[in-house]
Amino acid sequence: MLDGLRARSISIAITEKDRRHMDAIPVARRLRIMRRIMCRPPTEEQHLKGNTSYVKAILKLRASGLRLIDLQRQETAFTAIWYRKSTSVLGLLMSEAIALVVWELNERDEEITTLRIWRT
User: Fold this and answer.
1) Spatial separation of the C-alpha atoms in residues 47 and 67, rounded to whole Å
2) Domain region containing 97
3) DSSP secondary-structure letter at 91?
């Protein structure tokens, strides 16, 4: 079970700007993006340990231009989905990046962050 201090430190990594952006994304669009990642394996996957890995992963995603589109809190985990779409001058899709960040507390009270990235 997440204690108050851990839950607070994890949720601080998600800024108010992130939350506003997430709230502005229509639910139908979020679902389309999430379905896409469930249909295929990630192009990259990392398993990180340590109490700062979650925050570092989020900071790197944000610096890479990805924006929060979904955030879920479970009993012993946080799940965040980040998204970036790049378009050409003509408005055509050039590339897409979707990242799933899962922070969890395992049975030995260790913090583990899993980062999965899908690119097109």
Assistant:
1) 21
2) 4-119
3) S
